[in-house]
Amino acid sequence: MPLVNALNVAALLAYAGKYATVVIESEKQELEVLRHFQVDTAITSSKRFPKMVIGDMLGAYTGDDDTTGNEIVFSDRELKVTVGDFKMAIDPEVLRNTFAGQDSKITDGKIPMEEAFIRYYMRQGFAQFNNGVFWKGDTTLANTTPNKAKRMMDGLEKDLLAAIAATEIVPITTAAFNSGTGWGAAYTDGNTIQGIEAVWNGLKAPYRQKKTHMYLSESVFVKLIDQYTRRQSNVDYLDSSSDTIILKNTGGKCMVHKCFWLGDSQRVIAANDGAIIVGTDKPTFVSDLKIQERGYKALYLSKMVAGVRIIDTEAVSCNNLV
């Protein structure tokens, strides 16, 4: 079978116009941070999230209506979103005599290469956001290639560190995590379970009564599973392929998540449901995909509007490791 010429740019444009929204929505479902946090899809610039705290009111009956006047305290925290974009250019000549050139046509009964290009493009954009920007983003970084994606927005780590510096969140001290060694009678206990439970107990009692999510990097999550397993002397006690488990002794209220967005961080974060919110301006999380002919190339363009904010610092606990 003879190899064909270059990529059909006209087919790319036609396919994107018809199916791009469906493909974007499909790939967005794989964006890990959107599964871990509540998302507000109606923030075009910023939004304030108010909190009202009612203090002590109950006392012995006195027959009068005197109050201290400070029973209610209002506060709010603002979630700001910023705009980023991702771009990709395809030079048809680079793809000449390749599988891409050969398959770049819409044929009944098979997935066209046009869809594959769109999927890879969106998947890579979402992956960069999930694994680099969401946690480590910092708009003040120098404009260098390694920092290009991170400069899109201020990530969760930056917000957490600011809350710690303001003593709004006081980290729980935990030693470096280890899962112990040996099995059965030869088992020497580790400290990962104790450290994780300490972060949970760092939440005040009213907050431990609410649905809570705990976020662990993959390495810490694996140590937690390993220690549970060694304690039971049973390699099948817990399936380490699971991405979420229920933390014991929490009455089923604390879900522990394995988070690739945390990278290799040793930071453990516990937060009530809704205490941390991701903001964007539309349900698809990105603007509609645009594909333009630019000289000899096909140029892919998309904007992403995003932000993250700790909305209720009292409902968040973390450890001191980084």
Index terms:
322 residues; alpha+beta; phage-related protein like fold; five-stranded mixed beta sheet; globular; disordered N terminus
Description:
- The structure is a single chain.
- A hairpin with a 2-residue loop joins strand 10 and strand 11 (297-310).
- This protein has one domain: phage-related protein like fold (Alpha-Beta Complex).
- The longest helix is centred in the middle third of the chain and has 24 residues, at 113-136.
- It is of the alpha+beta class.
- The relative contact order is 0.21.
- The strands form 3 sheets. Strands 1, 4, 9, 10 and 11 form a 5-stranded mixed sheet that branches.
- It has 8 helices and 12 strands.
- The model is unreliable at 1-5 and 106-111 (pLDDT under 50).
- The chain has helices spanning 9-28, 32-36, 99-103, 113-136, 156-165, 192-201, 205-208, 218-232, and strands at residues 38-40, 46-54, 72-80, 82-90, 212-217, 244-246, 254-259, 269-272, 276-279, 290-294, 297-310, 316-318.
- The termini are far apart.
- Helix 1 crosses helix 4.
Domains, number: 1
CATH topology: phage-related protein like fold
Low-confidence stretches: 1-5, 106-111
Give the strand content: 15-25%
Distance, first to last CA: 56 Å
> CATH first level: which class?
Alpha Beta
Q: How would you classify the helix and strand content by structural class? A: alpha+beta
Give me the strand/helix succession: HHEEEEHHHHHEHEEEEEEE
CATH architecture: Alpha-Beta Complex
Number of helices: 8
Largest sheet: 5 strands, mixed
Shape label: globular
Average pLDDT over all residues: 86
Task: Give the C-alpha Rg.
Answer: 25 Å
Helix content: 25-40%
Q: List how many beta strands DSSP finds.
A: 12
